[in-house]
Design goal:
31% of the residues lie in helices and 9% in strands. The protein is α/β, with parallel strands linked by helices. The chain has one domain (4-214): Lysozyme-like, CATH 3.40.80. The radius of gyration is 17 Å and the shape is globular.
């Protein structure tokens, strides 16, 4: 697939230059800004540098399928973090609890034991506030995940492709006005399962070495 690399310089807020500890999956997000383009979101991330906001993603996918690589996939981007360790879910803690450097994550070095040290972040644009993705965005997301799994075996694509809400309870933890992320996939879990099953089959078809390890998904309902 065609990916435009638009990296910011190393900076504390969007691209600190720290390596991902180990690639254990992908974390999917929505922009929560209807009709924004991939370039709009890239520019918003750039403004975070001047506004001193810690937020970015490795990839941004637009509503027409245009894809920007904002932070290299071997570096962390600031996404999927939590305002407090109490909101990290079991799915989040499983990312780091078996790591040799892991020591009492909830009392020491919280920032080191954050999902973005283990998961590549993908920000997805959408046309409406319900967060439903266009066919072009879904297709580009599937192609991106194929590319990533061709480079790195990050585990079973169904269980290692996660939503932001899966790791921080975003939108379901009782904060007034906070929406789940990605909203459509949290509110329509059947579509979320379809996307992962469809993508898993495409990955296994494209990457033969993974077929025997994880098996291709069969009879998946396709979200187009």
């Amino acid at each position: 697939m065609e990916i435009e690399k638009m990296y910011p310089d190393i900076n504390p807020y969007t691209r600190p230059g720290y390596p991902i500890q180990e690639h254990r999956g992908v974390l999917m997000h929505w922009t929560a800004t209807p009709r924004a383009t991939a370039e709009n979101i890239r520019n918003a991330f750039d403004r975070n540098i001047f506004n001193r906001v810690f937020a970015s993603a490795n990839y941004i996918i637009g509503i027409d399928g245009e894809t920007i690589e904002y932070v290299p996939p071997d570096e962390i981007a600031y996404h999927g973090g939590s305002v407090s360790p109490e909101y990290y879910t079991e799915a989040a803690r499983r990312l780091w609890e078996d790591h040799p450097k892991y020591v009492n994550w909830h009392e020491t070095a919280l920032n080191i034991w954050a999902p973005y040290y283990w998961l590549i972040g993908v920000e997805m644009c959408h046309e409406t506030m319900d967060g439903k993705f266009t066919p072009a965005t879904l297709y580009a997301a599937k192609e991106l995940l194929i590319d990533l799994w061709e480079q790195k075996d990050m585990g079973d694509p169904v269980t290692h492709t996660l939503r932001h809400t899966d790791v921080t309870q975003k939108g379901v933890r009782g904060f007034e006005g906070e929406l789940p992320c990605p909203r459509w996939w949290v509110e329509h879990p059947e579509d979320w399962l379809d996307f992962r099953m469809y993508t898993k089959e495409a990955i296994c078809n494209a990457v033969d070495r993974l077929r025997g390890k994880y098996g291709a998904a069969r009879n998946a309902r396709l979200t187009r």
